[in-house]
Specification:
InterPro entries: MPAB/Lcp_cat_dom (IPR018713). Helices cover 63% and strands 3% of the residues. It is an all-alpha fold and 293 residues long. It has a two-stranded antiparallel ribbon with strand order 1-2.
Length: 293
């Protein structure tokens, strides 16, 4: 699947405004687009963010410089812009969104032993790894396991989520086996800090500074996001956050997964891919009119 090429392709450059654009292991194509286009793939998004927060450097930086309470809509939009544009955008559009990302990251820095740096390659690698993990898990939970050939190709194409964050391509684990080893090793080193726990409340109960319509949707869907997130997180991590698995969360997640598997595949593709198409159109409109991304 591809989306229409925009006029932004005419300003392709070798480097973005904030440094070189690293080459991914494979250019994004049908494999990554198959996964990212599906709305069900994003059902794991809050679990992915929680895993990011459990990396102390990420948790401290987000706590100090960002807020899911003050700007929830803008945060969500920019995160979705990054994922969708890296998968579906032209090279010029990718540089647009990475420039915007790096511009925001420039101020997220504090020296010292308990400091953080949004441009730290290891932290950004972990962020990209959680994006890959979450989207693939969300897809496979509903639409079934990818065959090995597609899964291998998708993994290589997902390296763009890391290289777009200025992670050298050599840091992305060479294959899915190496990624699994990296993942397990990273999970064992995670530490849920006070800052991470505080941010997690805003993430799981986002009821402030929302337009009325989104506030209502959040109130209705919040419990689903919470029990889904709890059941997807590794046991130690969810317990350290203070959200243990219970009979209720396990049962509700089982029901949700069963319903999703039965209903979602029968939905029209226009419904399943609407969020992707909407955000790509919104991104291109903002680029064309000079609006803030």
């Amino acid at each position: 699947m591809t989306t229409k090429t925009s006029a932004a392709a005419s300003d392709t450059t070798t480097h973005g405004r904030y440094g070189a654009y690293n080459t991914p292991l494979a250019e994004p194509g049908a494999a990554i687009q198959r996964i990212v286009a599906e709305l069900c793939s994003f059902s794991t998004s809050k679990a992915s963010v929680m895993l990011q927060l459990a990396s102390p450097g990420v948790g401290r930086g987000v706590h100090a410089h960002s807020s899911f309470t003050l700007r929830p809509v803008e945060r969500a939009r920019r995160s979705l812009f990054y994922i969708y544009v890296m998968a579906f955008g032209t090279p010029a559009e990718r540089r647009r969104v990475t420039d915007a990302t790096h511009r925001a990251h420039m101020r997220v820095r504090k020296p010292g032993e308990a400091g953080y740096d949004a441009n730290d390659e290891d932290l950004q690698l972990w962020v990209a790894a959680t994006i890959y993990w979450g989207l693939v898990v969300g897809y496979e939970e509903v639409l079934g396991k990818l065959d090995d050939k597609t899964a291998d190709q998708a993994y290589r194409e997902f390296s763009i989520m890391a290289t777009g964050l200025r992670v050298p391509p050599g840091k992305w684990p060479r294959d899915r086996v190496a990624f699994a080893e990296y993942w397990d090793r990273s999970i064992s080193r995670l530490e849920v800090t006070r800052e991470a726990r505080e941010v997690s409340v805003d993430l799981l109960w986002p009821t402030k500074n929302l337009p009325w319509g989104l506030w209502l949707v959040t109130k209705l869907t919040g419990p689903v996001h919470r029990f889904t997130t709890i059941e997807l997180l590794p046991e130690r991590i969810r317990n350290d956050f203070g959200y243990p698995s219970t009979r209720y969360t396990r049962f509700m997640y089982w029901i949700k997964r069963a319903v999703d598997r039965r209903v979602y595949p029968w939905l029209p593709l226009s419904w399943r891919h609407f969020v992707m198409r909407y955000h790509m159109a919104d991104f291109r409109k903002r680029v064309a009119t000079g609006m803030e991304l």
